[in-house]
Recover the amino acids of this structure.
């Protein structure tokens, strides 16, 4: 099975900062990767699909890049609403695998 | 608009069975897979499996083989997840979620169903 590893587990940042979260796959997954944002008590929200495609309605300060085994989610200028937990997710023809999550907290 | 509306919170005793429903609206039910994902308190997301409402085909994560059953009723656009032989570590919020035919990202989620298993 493919394992997805996110880093860091926790990230402290301030409003206006540029932040990057990394997700590594245990083997090449092409561009079959998505990023989600989850706030406490809420379902996750899709931000990025197929590694770099921005979901409709998601602010352009969010961007995704990468292919193969290494992927990044970048928030160009943090806003107060962005403090949440972020998950990467690999999807293939048969299954879905989530990373363990990155908690983005206010510094 | 697309909606996935799940059944309400449940409290179960260890060893019992659980059934959560997920009613879809606002789209063609048989055109999308329904997945089940759970999240234990303070923990990450764990994928459990999917059902293809078009033909009833399913695939489950290895961790749940033999304990989970996923079904659907296309006449009422509803998917079901049944988990047997509940344990205390099955305490979690259970989500249903939608994808196009795999490979595809989840684009809509249900509101979640809190399941508490007591020993």
């Amino acid at each position: 099975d493919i394992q997805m590893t996110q880093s860091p587990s926790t990230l402290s940042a301030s409003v206006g900062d540029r932040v990057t979260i990394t997700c590594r796959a245990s083997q090449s997954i092409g561009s079959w990767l998505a990023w989600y944002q989850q706030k406490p008590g809420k379902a996750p929200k899709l931000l990025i699909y197929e590694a770099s495609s921005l979901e409709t309605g998601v602010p352009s300060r969010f961007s995704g890049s990468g292919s193969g085994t290494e992927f990044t989610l970048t928030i160009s200028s943090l806003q107060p609403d962005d403090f949440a937990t972020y998950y990467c997710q690999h999807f293939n023809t048969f299954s879905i695998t989530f990373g363990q999550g990155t908690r983005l907290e206010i510094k | 608009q697309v909606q996935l509306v799940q059944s309400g919170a449940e409290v179960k005793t260890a060893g019992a069975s659980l059934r959560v429903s997920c009613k879809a609206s606002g789209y063609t039910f048989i055109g999308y897979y329904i997945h089940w994902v759970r999240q234990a308190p303070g923990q990450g997301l764990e994928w459990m499996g999917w059902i293809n409402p078009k033909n009833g085909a399913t695939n489950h994560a290895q961790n749940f083989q033999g304990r989970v059953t996923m079904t659907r009723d296309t006449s009422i656009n509803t998917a079901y997840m049944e988990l047997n032989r509940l344990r205390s570590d099955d305490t979690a919020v259970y989500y249903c979620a939608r994808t196009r035919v795999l490979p595809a990202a989840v684009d809509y989620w249900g509101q979640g169903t809190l399941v508490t298993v007591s020993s």
